[in-house]
Specification:
eight-stranded mixed beta sheet; single chain
Length: about 280
């Protein structure tokens, strides 16, 4: 019976495993293992202490039935920046959803910036994601989770079948943050408490031992300066802050997230804004 179920299954199992470590004053990508449809580009040499790595899907997007697992272990004192070359497309899924699991493990004093471009769920798509982060003492996390409501320019906003994302952050003291949303067919949240007519939305989470209050103030200023966006900033009970952002269009979303990311780098890591040189 098991064999028959596997034969009927549509989709691929993709795995990406990364290991970073600090050597002297630099971070190196020590270990890489992947299976398609996940792949990774060689680290980019930028004027920055982080090891900058792009995760990509050479098949062009995520298909129904794909099961993707991304694991990154960042050793003590290492600094990893994980991104994507472009937005992630999730194609129509008539049966099984696309499932993506991300696990980030940060050693003592490590730093991780998880800043992929936004996800675009096509009409009829089904996408289920879980991001789990484990923080060592003194570790710093900057994490972005951003979405479009669909191919908005084609009139497909809120036409996906399922969109689910869960984010959990823990350290040795216990839970730091947990959040989950589930949107179904024809969600179209337009009123108070929903997307309020904005077809782009994002969460930016930061966790650190210092600089959180400064980040929160800088994030509020960044949101106030960006046209076409609405948002808010809230401090976590300990060790972090979360930003919710709504945007009227992709350019507004990109501008707002760039400003928020710059604020996080400056206040938490003492680093300037970074241009990733994407096309």
């Amino acid at each position: 019976m098991r064999l028959l179920e596997d034969e009927r299954r549509v989709g691929r199992d993709g795995v990406l495993v990364l290991g970073f470590e600090r050597r002297d004053a630099v971070t190196i990508l020590r270990r890489v293992r992947y299976t398609l449809p996940l792949q990774v580009l060689a680290p980019v040499a930028l004027e920055d202490p982080a090891a900058v790595v792009s995760i990509l899907n050479p098949t062009g997007g995520l298909l129904g039935g794909d099961r993707l697992t991304i694991e990154a272990d960042v050793g003590p004192g290492a600094h990893a920046l994980l991104t994507t070359p472009s937005a992630t497309r999730v194609y129509r899924a008539p049966a099984e959803p696309t499932v993506q699991t991300v696990v980030l493990r940060l050693g003592r004093g490590a730093a991780v910036e998880w800043v992929p471009d936004h996800t675009i769920p096509f009409a009829g798509s089904a996408f289920r994601q879980a991001i789990d982060c484990e923080l060592g003492d003194g570790a710093t996390l900057v994490l972005l989770d951003a979405f479009a409501a669909g191919r908005v320019a084609r009139g497909e906003a809120w036409a996906f079948r399922l969109l689910e994302s869960a984010l959990t952050v823990r350290d040795r003291r216990g839970l730091v943050f947990h959040d989950r949303f589930v949107l179904g067919t024809g969600a179209g949240p337009a009123g108070l408490g929903g997307a309020e007519g904005h077809p782009y939305f994002a969460t930016l989470l930061v966790a650190a031992d210092a600089g959180v209050e400064g980040f929160a103030a800088a994030a509020r200023d960044a949101l106030a300066r960006t046209r076409g966006t609405r948002g808010g900033v809230a401090a976590l009970p300990r060790r972090g802050a979360v930003v919710r952002c709504l945007a009227s269009g992709a350019p507004a979303l990109t501008e707002a997230l760039a400003a928020l990311w710059a604020a996080a780098r400056g206040e938490l890591l003492g680093l300037p804004a970074l241009c990733l040189r994407k096309p």
